[in-house]
Amino acid sequence: MVRVSSPGKVILFGEHAVVYGHPAVAVAVKARTEVDVYPASDEGQTTVNGELIDGYRHKHLLLAHELLSKGSPMRFRIRSRVPSTMGLGSSSALTIASAGGILALDGDVDPEKLAQFAFEIEYKAGGKASPLDTSTSIAGGAVALLPESESGFLWQIEKDGIRWCAHSCPVPSASLVIGYTGNKSRTHELVGKVGKLAKAHGFVAEIFKDIGRIALVGLRALQQGDMNEVGVQMNRNHELLSMVGVSNNDLDRLVEAAKPHSYGAKLTGKGGGGSMIALTDEPELVAEAIRREGGKPMEFDWDTQGFEIVRTEG
Ligand code: MEV
């Protein structure tokens, strides 16, 4: 048996645009998914928390099992502290923990290999995607995806002529407050809609380029420890995401409420519901402002630990 764990994430800069190869930055948060993987006897069946694995409820896990288990049945036990449908990377954390757990049955796990497999799984599960969430869940801390490699390089992933080079970068020197709108959003539907918009309207592709430029300026500010500039770029990033239609009134309200006490605030992840984030030195004031506007504030620490083999037995 192996026990592995991996973190969820928030996106500081570049969601949606990163799917088309533009720069982006995400940071792991201390909300983790833990998976125990047991090899079952050959006649046994593959189960998840005691129930037969099923392609609807356990889509990512089933894909990971099909891709990596060489047909051997396995038993999985999942415990997740990453809230789902909030834009905090719950499906990536599960993909990493389950694919990583299967690989860990054979010994040490090569993070680059895991990154390749995990991206393939995410892609098969829902179509167009970037390796931002999965790379962050593997590496932990802050991860930047860039079209070219530079210092801090971790690995690169290519698909459909797009290349993403993953890099490790500094974690923000400010507290994180997440504001949940109370509405779910569906990543793949939204990524698909935005993709159609980008094809039909040149201006969306132009906005994605602007988002990429903002992400790069934000990354440099992060590297210099300039939190004021990081915040300015987050605010701009939110405005551009609103222009492509992935924000909504609830997200805009929470972002505006958080701003007076924050370096910056923006929606995080897919949008269309889900959550916003604020970077701040006054987390209580931000949480209170979010609550006043009907949102649910949550405080998470940054997590510098990525994918981890917690225990091996037998
Ligand atoms: C979702 O967390 C982030 C998106 O950019 C999709 C992706 O990168 O795969 C919307």
Number of strands: 13
CATH architecture of the largest domain: 2-Layer Sandwich
Low-confidence parts, pLDDT < 50 over ≥5 residues?
Answer: none
Number of helices: 9
Largest sheet: 9 strands, mixed
End-to-end separation in angstroms reads 6 Å
Secondary-structure-derived class: alpha+beta
- What is the CATH level 1 assignment of the largest domain? Alpha Beta
Estimate the strand proportion: 25-35%
Task: Explain what the structure shows.
With 314 residues, this protein is of the alpha+beta class. It folds into two domains: 2-170 and 303-312, 2-Layer Sandwich (Ribosomal Protein S5, domain 2), CATH 3.30.230.10; 175-300, GHMP kinase, C-terminal domain (Alpha-Beta Plaits). It contains nine helices and 13 strands. Strands 1, 2, 3, 4, 5, 6, 7, 8 and 13 form a nine-stranded mixed beta sheet that branches. The model has no long low-confidence stretch (mean pLDDT 94). It binds (R)-mevalonate. (R)-mevalonate is lined by residues 11, 15-16, 18-19, 129-130, 132-133, 187, 191, 269-270.
Notable traits:
single chain; 314 residues; alpha+beta; Ribosomal Protein S5, domain 2; Alpha-Beta Plaits; 2 domains; 9-stranded mixed beta sheet; 4-stranded antiparallel beta sheet; 27% strand; globular; binds (R)-mevalonate
Write the topology of this structure.
Layout (H helix, E strand, L loop, with lengths): L1 E12 L10 E16 L7 E2 L2 E2 L6 H10 L5 E7 L9 H15 L6 H16 L5 H8 L2 E5 L6 E7 L2 E8 L5 E6 L6 H14 L1 H22 L3 H17 L5 H10 L5 E5 L6 E6 L2 H10 L3 E4 L8 E5 L2
Parallel strand pairs: 3-5
Antiparallel strand pairs: 1-2, 1-13, 2-5, 2-6, 3-4, 6-8, 7-8, 9-11, 9-12, 10-11
